């Protein structure tokens, strides 16, 4: 049996605890960034250091250089005899602008905050509040790249080393951070199907849930222990009510409103294994008839 130790202001344990882990009053410095959502959920991110970001930049720089050479050889060079030197210079500057700022802005906006270099290094750009990056913040942080890139990105690296969240000038202006992605496999608990009764066919209509819905129920119930009871009940109730309406469920309403997880499990067993059981019954019946004919 675990014992509880009362903590007060005079306790040395309480003093050490409050000095090190006072939530809401100070942040722990390091590579961890914690964000509290409006739903009071604490999210933890691992910040990317300057060395990781510099490697990602070098990969992107190599890709942009190859793209620029290809554009020059197959697009600009053939047009040199057709356009005036001033027009060619202007066209080249536009292409350089798109190659430098457009590459990052388009990549980060449409590929979930990742360029090719960031993807290779496992990095991602997000907003400081933990939200995905959108077009305007991405454009703003990359327009400030010209200031960060002074002296071989010396200004940007200096800014990263002097800020708590390793933010270069573009990140500070746009309110973004670069994080290290971490793969996480949530533990699963199997659904004990032998203790779950399928829905009565007389209490449901002819609607058949899609395989995607059944897979969602399987994933949700398999990881039900990760959520609190209140949160799990609230999420399950939304899906249970919608499925009950689609199925025209005429059974006990309390099963849907008060025990939504049990209702979802019944739906899963009814439609995931009902067809298999029917096929097995037909196969058994066919074998019995074949055996009887063989005996006769």
Q: Could you describe the 3D structure shown?
A:
- By secondary structure, this protein is α+β, with helices and mostly antiparallel strands.
- It has 12 helices and 4 strands, in the order H-E-E-H-H-H-E-H-H-H-H-E-H-H-H-H.
- The chain has helices at residues 12-21, 50-79, 85-110, 116-121, 135-143, 145-148, 150-162, 169-174, 211-222, 229-247, 253-257, 260-295; strands at residues 32-36, 42-47, 123-127, 176-180.
- Strands 1-2-4-3 form a 4-stranded antiparallel sheet.
- Strand 1 and strand 2 (42-47) form a beta hairpin.
- Helix 3 packs across helix 5 and helix 10 crosses helix 12.
- The radius of gyration is 30 Å and the shape is elongated.
- It starts with 11 loop residues before the first helix and ends with a helix.
- The model is unreliable at 1-29 (pLDDT under 50).
Topology diagram in text:
Elements: H1 12-21, E1 32-36, E2 42-47, H2 50-79, H3 85-110, H4 116-121, E3 123-127, H5 135-143, H6 145-148, H7 150-162, H8 169-174, E4 176-180, H9 211-222, H10 229-247, H11 253-257, H12 260-295
Antiparallel strand pairs: 1-2, 2-4, 3-4
Helix pairs in contact: 2-3, 3-5, 9-12, 10-12
Give the key terms.
alpha+beta, 12 helices, four-stranded antiparallel β-sheet, disordered N terminus, elongated
């Amino acid at each position: 049996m675990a014992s509880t130790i009362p903590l007060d202001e005079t306790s040395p344990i309480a003093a050490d605890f409050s000095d090190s882990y006072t939530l809401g009053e100070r942040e722990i410095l390091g590579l961890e960034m914690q964000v509290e959502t409006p739903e009071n959920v604490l999210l933890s991110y691992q910040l990317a250091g300057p060395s990781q970001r510099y490697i990602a930049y070098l990969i992107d720089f190599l890709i942009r250089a190859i793209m620029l050479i290809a554009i020059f050889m197959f697009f600009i060079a053939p047009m040199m005899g057709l356009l005036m030197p001033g027009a060619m210079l202007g066209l080249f500057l536009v292409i350089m602008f798109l190659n430098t700022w457009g590459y990052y802005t388009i990549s980060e906006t449409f590929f979930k905050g990742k360029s090719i270099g960031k993807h290779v290094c496992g990095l991602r750009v997000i907003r400081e509040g933990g939200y995905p990056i959108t077009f305007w913040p991405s454009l703003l942080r990359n327009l400030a790249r010209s200031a960060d890139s002074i002296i071989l990105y010396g200004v940007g690296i200096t800014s990263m080393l002097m800020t708590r969240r390793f933010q270069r000038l573009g990140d500070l202006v746009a309110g973004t951070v670069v994080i290290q992605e971490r793969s996480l496999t949530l533990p699963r608990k199997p659904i004990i199907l032998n203790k779950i009764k399928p829905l009565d066919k007389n209490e449901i209509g002819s609607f058949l849930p899609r395989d995607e819905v059944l897979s969602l129920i399987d994933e949700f119930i398999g990881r039900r222990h990760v959520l609190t009871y209140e949160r799990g009940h609230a999420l399950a109730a939304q899906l249970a009510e919608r499925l009950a309406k689609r199925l025209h469920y005429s059974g006990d309403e309390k099963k849907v409103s008060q025990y939504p997880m049990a209702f979802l499990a019944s739906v899963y067993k009814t439609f995931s294994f009902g067809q298999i059981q029917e096929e097995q019954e037909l196969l058994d019946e066919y074998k019995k008839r074949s055996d009887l004919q063989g005996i006769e």
